Amino acid sequence: MKILTVTCHPLKRSLVLLACAMSLAAPVPGQAERLKDLASIQGVRQNQLIGYGLVVGLDGSGDQTTQTPFTVQSVMSMLQQMGVNLPPASSLQLKNVAAVMVTTSLPAFAQPGQTLDITVSSMGNAKSLRGGTLLMTPLKGADGQIYGMAQGNVLVGGVGAAASGSKAQVNHLSVGRISAGATVERAVPTALGQGDSVFLELNDTDFSTASRVVDAVNKRFGADTAAARDARVIRVRAPVDNSERVAFLGALESINLTPAQSVAKVILNARTGSVVMNQAVTLESCAVSHGNLSIVINTEAAVSQPAPFSGGQTVVTQTSQIDIRKEPGQVLMLKGGASLAEVVKALNAIGATPQDLLAILQAMKAAGSLRAELEII
Predict the structure, then answer these.
(1) How far does the signal peptide extend, from start to end residue (predicted)?
(2) Which DSSP state fits 305?
(3) Residue 136: which region, alpha, beta or left (left: phi > 0; alpha: psi -120 to 50)?
(4) Fewer Cβ within 10 Å of end Cβ, the chain: N or C?
(5) Amino acid 234: pLDDT
(6) Inter-residue contact 225 to 236 (CB < 8 Å)
C-alpha cells in the first residue's frame, strides 16, 4: 500500500491547516458571555437614512451628461431654486458634477445637532469622486421624513495606494466618506421609557438560551423579574423612573451567562473552497463515490468493561475509520473519531477541488450522514 504525499495550493494548504487544528482541538465547554452580546433591547435600534445629491468640484471626472440626463436635470433644478433661470433649450455639458446617493444610519437616541458619518456613492458614470464637495442633501427615513442634512468634502480613501508587493490598485474611486458630514435634524421617538417592562430580543432564536437568560436575570434581580414569551423575546420588569431604568439596564446588560450550544452548521464558500464548521458537526457511517474519488466512513463500537467487583460501569465508545481513495494503490487512511475536519483535510491532501468538496458534502447531507446544516455562499 502506497501512502500519498502531495504538495497543496496555498489556499488548500490553509484549509488543511484549518482542518487539522479543528480535528486536534478537543471540545471545550462554552464560555460565559455578556447579555449585551447575546441580546438587544426592543426599540433600541438604528434607522437607515438615504438621500440624493450632487458632488461638484471634480477635476473632469464627473458624469458624462449625454449618458446621465438626471445629472443635468438635478443641476437645473438646483439653479432654479437659487434664482438662476436657464433657457429651456439649454444643453449643459458638465464634467465636474456627479449625481450621488448618500447613506448613513441614525443611531438610537440620536438628538438634533448630533453629527453622523456618511457614505457617498456615485450612481452615474463618474470616474472619480476625489476632491469633490457634496452639496446640501436632505436625508430621509423609510417614512419619507427628513431626519438629517448632509454636506462636506468627500474623502476617497486609498487613492494611489497599492498593496504591498502587488501592482494592483486597491482603492475604489466612485465611493467616498465624509466624517461628521451629516447633522441630525429630527429625533426618532422610542418607547423605552413607557410601561413597567422592557423586552429583550435574542440575536439568535434558541429556546435553551432564552431559558438560561431568564434564570440568570431572576437570579440577579429576584424571582419573577424575567419571563420568556417565546424562543426570542424575553419580558423583563424594570423601574418606571428613567434614571433608575437606565441604571437597571446597564446592570442587566452586564450579566454573564453561558449560551446554549449552537446548531451544527457547515459553511462552504464554493468560489474559494473555504470551509468553516463548529464543534457540533458530526458524521455517521457512509460511503460516497464522486468521479475517481471514493470515501468510506466506518464506525465501530468499543466496549470497555470494569474489573470484577470494582464497582465501575461499562463504557461504550465510538471509533471511526475514514478511507479516501483517488487511484488504485493511493490510499489515505485516518483513524479516530469521524469528523468533517478529517474528511476535508484528507480530500485536500489528495488534490480534490472545491467543486469536488461541494458535491461530496451535499451527497453526505442528502444521505443523512452529515449531521449539520449545510450553507453554501
Answers:
(1) 1-32
(2) P
(3) beta
(4) N
(5) 95
(6) yes
**Grid coordinates 487539522 are at which residue?**
20
CA distance 145 to 141: 6
Residues 6+ apart with CB under 8 A from 106: 46, 47, 48, 49, 116, 141, 147, 148, 184, 188
**Which parts of 220-327 are beta strand (E)?**
226-228, 233-237, 256-257, 265-268, 275-277, 282-283, 286-290, 293-304, 315-327
Q: Which residues contact 377 (CB under 8 A, 6 or more apart)?
A: 267, 268, 269, 270
Cell of 127: 470616474
Cα distance between residue 158 and residue 169, in whole Å: 9
Grid coordinates given for 220: 440577579
Letter for the amino acid at 156?
Answer: V
326-368 confidence digits (pLDDT tens):
554 444 444 434 566 776 776 776 667 777 777 777 877 887 7
> What pLDDT, on a 0 to 100 scale, did the predictor assign at position 167?
57
Question: What is the pLDDT averaged over residues 204-218?
Answer: 94
Q: Which residues pair with 55 in a beta bridge?
A: 98, 134
The answer on pLDDT for 86 being more than 70 is yes
**329 — alpha (psi -120 to 50), left (phi > 0) or beta?**
left
In three-state form (DSSP H/G/I as H, E/B as E, the rest C), the secondary structure along 159-185 is CCCECCCCCCECCCCCEEEEEEEEEEC
Half-sphere exposure of 192 (CA within 13 A, CB side): 19
Which three-class secondary structure string do you get for 98-146?
EEEEEEEEECCCCCCCCEEEEEEEECCCCCCCCCCEEEEEEEECCCCCE
pLDDT in the model for residue 152: 95
Nearest to 282 by CA among 27, 1, 4: 27
Provide the 3-class DSSP secondary structure of residue 356: helix
